[in-house]
Amino acid sequence: MRMNKSKPILAFIFLLIWSCQSNRVAIENKEPSSVYNSETVLSEETDKSKLVKKLERKISEYQGSAQRDFDLLHTSLDLSFDFENEWVIGEAMLTLKPYFFSQKTIVLDAKDFEIHGVALVDEAGKNDLNFQYDTQKLTVYLPEEFSLKDTLTVNIRYTAMPNENSGSGSAAITDRKGLYFINSDGEENKPTQIWTQGETEHNSKWVPTFDRPNERATHDIKLTVEEKFRTISNGALIASTANGDGTRTDHWEMNLPHAPYLMAVVVGEFVEIEDSWEDIQVNYYVEEKYAEGAKTVFKHTPEMIGFFSDLLGVKYPWQKYDQVVVRDFVSGAMENTTISVFMEELNLDERAAIDSEWDGIIAHELFHQWFGNYVTNESWSNLTLNEAFANYSEYLWYDYKEGSDEADLHHVSEMEQYMAEASRKQVDLIRFYYDDPEDMFDSHSYAKGGRILHMLRNHLGDLAFFESLKHYLTKHAFQSVEVHDLRLAFEEVTGMDLNWFFNQWFLDSGHPILEYEVDYSQPDNLLLTVAQRQDFETTPLYKLPFKVSWYVDGERKEKDFVLEKEWQQFALENETPVSLMYFDERKVLLAEKNSFRGLDHFVRQFNES
Ligand SMILES: [Zn+2]
Q: What is the pLDDT of residues 144-195, one digit of tens each?
């Protein structure tokens, strides 16, 4: 579905004028018995009711940001696991306050739980509360109205059954259990593990919460497991206590606020490979037999943390950074705050590790620690604010580590990935209409978003681009954002208006289809003609800054132009006569480009190469 910001309104006004005029005509020519007229009225009614239905759907199906009735401040969790039934036995203490308006009920996401009791906790103790539970939402009735000056603590005892209602996956993840038991009875030929996958709204399968990306809270989690298991979670391990019955309770504390979908728990028999960057612990966790391989697979991580910290001017913002490789993961990898989880393809022995390369996915998850975790999309409609950056980080890393040729290859392959998807569907990058949040995880949000950032960087220059990102990250640290926050950050730093850029690329669909031709008849002043050939009914007429380049005695010359018409000519005024020029030589433009070049062009290109 495509919902343009301005066009439907224009179309609506047009239809309104059209229908008013038609009505007037119908009234003036009063011939009620005429078959012709009743059909006209009928068709008008049908058209109007279609339009009304469409407009009503536009309101009812709009995917906005979740309304915040409460602000969750802190969650204390105490979890143990029933491996036989694959259940989570939990007790949660939620500290929260009304967001603005006074509240008498709390509605929490708690999917497929059995609720054993809900209580309000104060100095005097616990007071049981009435609640209603419909297997997905827990509605808690408070004894009185609480205002935004009040902070309250609610205790919930529950059993979570993550396997209930599971099985329906998506292109992004293959299931939505939230918490997964792997080989829980030990009968299969693989290790026994537990791990979680919260994005998009699946952590409420094991913790009662406001499972929306615009929520943000600290938490601490107690995990009681068999002695043989290691636990890994967000933040720092602050205590580990043997219980004397073959179990141990690990206490993890996440004292910096982050979104609920970024909470994570991993349990299993892993070895720890210690590494570090500056004063930050950077550990890798894998099954013992892959320990040597992991040292190779993840070896660039500290250097990456340093590279991204310097590039962004914002030091890695969290307590530590763990990377864990688990079995049967439902996605490629997930950037939970301070603990990224990877699929088992990264389980490699020493030899296989040398022959493989995982820097792209490692960079991607790491960059999310800034874009996604430190600053978070306020709704899944804005997913590209997380994924475009993570996607672009792969290019940034390759460019730094492997050189521009390697980076360009990656860039072109990402562009092709988007183009392949665009041949099947073209949707707004920021889109407020989708059936399922998981639908947002496509090559638009990732590859197209990354290419748009590359264009913006080329338009503004490196200094302005990275200064703007630093401003965006600093201004919105520990906050949720929408696309306008990104635009404003760029505008505040550069002093430029960038509405045109964001409107055509982030808030609209499609891409330019360009035809171009170079007139070489005047070698000291080549003439470039460019035409936009996309369908303007569905795609913008673009304003496109671009570069042309040519070489004089092996030296590269470059000039900036802006295409802002359907058909436009540009005189190069190159002065020194040249016989060959390149339009967008570095393939910055996310566009289909077709040249009308005669045979003489290819002869020139052959002679010059
Ligand atoms: Zn990502």
A: 999 999 999 999 999 999 999 877 666 667 789 999 999 999 999 999 999 9
| Cis, bond preceding 200 (omega within 30 deg of 0) | yes
Q: What DSSP designation does 184 have? A: T
Answer positive or negative: Cα dihedral of 372, 375, 380, 383.
negative
Contact 388, 450 (CB under 8 A): yes
- Give the 3-state DSSP-derived string for 51-93, with helices as H, strands as E and coil as C: HHHHHHHHHHCCCCCCCCCEEEEEEEEEEEEECCCCEEEEEEE
Partners of 433 in the β-ladder: none
**387 Cα: distance to centroid of ligand 1 (angstroms):** 5
Ligand 1 geometric centre to CA of 70 (Å): 28
- 265 and 400 share a domain? no
In a domain, 598, yes or no: yes
d(C-alpha 202, C-alpha 240), whole Å:
27
Domain containing residue 139: CATH number: 2.60.40.1730
Q: Which residues surround ligand 1, an ion (CB under 5 A)?
A: 387, 390
Pairing of strands 137-146, 70-82: unpaired
Question: Do both 518 and 437 map to the same domain?
Answer: no
Half-sphere CA count of 599, side-chain side, radius 13 A:
0
Say whether both 127 and 252 belong to one domain: yes
Distance 74 CA to ligand 1 centre (A): 26
pLDDT at 64 over 80: yes
Phi, psi of 418 (to 5 degrees): -65, -45
Domain identity same for 34 and 74: no
DSSP output for 449-483? HHHHHHHHHHHH-HHHHHHHHHHHHHHTTTEEE-H
Question: Does the pLDDT value for residue 418 go beyond 90?
Answer: yes
Alpha-carbon distance of 143 to 64, in angstroms, equals 31
Residue 365 Cα to ligand 1 midpoint, Å, equals 6
Q: What separation in Å is there between the alpha carbon of 156 and the centre of ligand 1? A: 32
Centre of ligand 1 to C-alpha 360, Å, is 11
The single-letter code of the amino acid at 503 is N
Give 320 Cα–ligand 1 centroid separation in angstroms: 19
Would the pLDDT of 34 be above 60?
no
Q: Cα of 6 to ligand 1 centre, how many Å?
A: 30
Q: How confident is the model at residue 521 (pLDDT cuts 50, 70, 90)?
A: very high
| Ligand 1 centroid from CA 334, angstroms | 7
